[in-house]
Amino acid sequence: MSSQFKTVTIAGGTGTLGYHIADAFLNDGSYDVKILRRKPKTENEKANLLASKGAEIVYIDYDQKDDLVEALKGSDVVISVLGYSDGKLYENQIPLLTAAKEASVKRFIPSEFGSEFKVGVHPTPDGKIKFEEAVMKSGLEYTIIFNGLFQEFLSWIGFDVKNKKATFYADGNKKLHTTSLADVGRYTVETLKMPEARNAVIKVAGATMSLNEYLQEFEKITGSKWEVVVDEEVKHRYKNKIDPIPSPEEDFKATLVQNEQYKDLDNDKFSFTPHPVTEVIEKLVKQAA
Ligand SMILES: NC(=O)c1ccc[n+]([C@@H]2O[C@H](COP(=O)([O-])OP(=O)(O)OC[C@H]3O[C@@H](n4cnc5c(N)ncnc54)[C@H](OP(=O)(O)O)[C@@H]3O)[C@@H](O)[C@H]2O)c1
């Protein structure tokens, strides 16, 4: 598969997910990769690693529109992997979108990389949805990527490796999409080569398993039976939720309680098979040892 794009700018490319997306583009080898970081320049191990593999690191003040436009000129694609600060993601990304348009960027990938959430219940994803609507109206090409929970974040939904304890916030048969950070990177790279990803929402998952099935993998890899508790209070709280849900971590618990997982996955449009979830679970177990 080849891409019509050559230069990719990744805003937040040294963050938790951004690093893996940047690394996947550099490993692909067919792109010039630029990474935007906020001024002032600070020592950063991930930035050094990515620079050693060929990325150009650019320090920018996102409030200086002319500088931002200048930094984006010549980029075919802008990928926002900005994180929340003070719960804000819409506001953080707007200057980037405005500048991308002015710099005649061709495609914009917003900082989504999560799960589908109901509108009006989860304030943090609400900001993402509002921004995605702005991207769709911008006139730029776009791809929005849903990947479920990062496998590295399985503790968010109750898998406590250190104490070999699982807290279930939903029925053990409830399924959850999860994807490793490295595979989110690989999926993102390949969307640029797929005609189906132009102006589209792409849904992928490295694994779609029930809570019981994730638990079995943790038990196999740790070689021991885990304590399992069911958190009825959270189950009840989020089932009847009227007030907004306060944090990304709680959003994923609530999503387990409230949502059916999406069924129309796009995995079969990609040329590769994601890594088995056991690879991340093995890493999590090693880290906790
Ligand atoms: N599916 C999941 O399980 C899951 C879990 C966590 C996150 N996510 C999603 O993944 C995406 C990236 O999250 P992340 O955790 O990788 O982000 P992160 O590491 O918290 O932040 C990414 C980068 O954003 C930049 N940044 C932070 N605040 C900023 C601001 N106010 N203005 C401009 N840049 C700012 C920083 O880069 P510099 O300091 O270098 O400028 C930072 O390294 C988000 O959409 C998030 O919701 C999904």
Automatic annotation (TrEMBL):
Pfam families named in the record: NmrA
Keywords linked to the UniProt accession: NADP, Oxidoreductase
Name of the protein in question: Aromatic alcohol reductase
One GO MF term: oxidoreductase activity
InterPro entries: NAD(P)-bd_dom_sf, NmrA-like, NmrA/Isoflavone_reductase-like, PCBER-like
Domain of life: Eukaryota
Domain NmrA-like residue range list: 6-237
